[in-house]
Design goal:
Mean pLDDT: 83
Number of domains: 1
Largest sheet: 2 strands, antiparallel
Shape: globular
Bound molecules: zinc ion
Oligomer: single chain
Strand order of the largest sheet: 1-2
Number of helices: 1
Radius of gyration: 11 Å
Order of helices and strands: EEEEH
Length: 67
């Protein structure tokens, strides 16, 4: 069972789902959304998340983190 809280993946290296900039765990958060009917974690940089970007189907709670 996946946890409701987004677990931080220490090995995360990705591009932001919103602005396509490269991100790492220090500058990103994982938001759970839905893609093709399945739950998926979207890696988003903190500025985008703080700016209000949410993945499609987002149903969780995001607490703003300091950038
Ligand atoms: Zn971004």
């Amino acid at each position: 069972m996946p946890s409701e809280k987004a677990k931080e993946n220490k090995a995360l290296m990705a591009v932001c789902a919103a602005c396509s900039k490269p991100i790492s765990t220090e500058t990103a958060v994982a938001l759970t959304g839905v893609e093709d009917g399945r739950r998926k974690q979207f890696a988003v940089c903190i500025p985008c998340a703080n700016g209000g970007w949410r993945p499609p189907g987002f149903s969780g709670v995001y607490t703003v983190r300091p950038a």
